[in-house]
Amino acid sequence: xxxxxxxxxxxxxxxxxxxxxxxxxxxxxxxxxxxxxxxxxxxxxxxxxxxxxxxxxxxxxxxxxxxxxxxxxxxxxxxxxxxxxxxxxxxxxxxxxxxxxxxxxxxxxxxxxxxxxxxxxxxxxxxx
Amino acid sequence: xxxxxxxxxxxxxxxxxxxxxxxxxxxxxxxxxxxxxxxxxxxxxxxxxxxxxxxxxxxxxxxxxxxxxxxxxxxxxxxxxxxxxxxxxxxxxxxxxxxxxxxxxxxxxxxxxxxxxxxxxxxxxxxx
DNA sequence: CCTTAATTCTTACTGGTGTAATAGATATTA
DNA sequence: TAATATCTATTACACCAGTAAGAATTAAGG
Lengths: 128, 128
Fold this sequence. Notes:
The structure is a homodimer. The first copy, chain A, is mainly α.
């Protein structure tokens, strides 16, 4: 599993739309993004183009319009970013991360309870 | 709590040394970094300078040498980065993150156990 | 006091990112 | 088929980051 291409912050916003709605045209991407951002459509086109160049997106011509599909999966990308984040800041250890969150009171009681029940579920999963 | 300055990846390597050993001189920083990297001392000096410009480091002259001290705390910085990471990839929800880790089998049984015992400790802490 | 060696400051260059405008191609319509 | 409207491709530009070389300064030793 070689490293996936680097996706910048703005490009990632584009990818979130593509992952959700692919196959999707330039115009549709632009429409969706304009609901939550104020980028110029030109800017969005540039981002799409760069994603194609990087090998993150591919497209097919449908008459005059391009329709895009992702070449890499969202969960793979997020997985890679998560790993690199954990390595950088917590020595690759998620327990260290959680522990530091708890120590700095960044988790509410209900979040902690959510985590507990998640972990007990995954306990049962292992049992079967 | 206004946003802390942005620290780049290479700059962060410098900061790890400073946080650990401050107050520390340019030469000492360079020495430590050369144990684990192959940067030119010139490069390291540039990074230090940029950190000073950004307001992350301050220094005092000790005769001809500069001795540096951090202006921001490691845990504050890591906290900020963690928050922005969680927001970006998991909607700010650490339970979602953990859940996705478990789903994609990125956690070993022993890591899961570590998390469980961490959470039961923090349970007791809340009790007192 | 002047030279030298050590240290800091200034400048440089490439590549990526944010942000977009303009030019070029193509399909649709008059 | 020619003009127009719509897409896509090319070009632009400033700033940040990685990476470093060269210039300037300053302390110390002869």
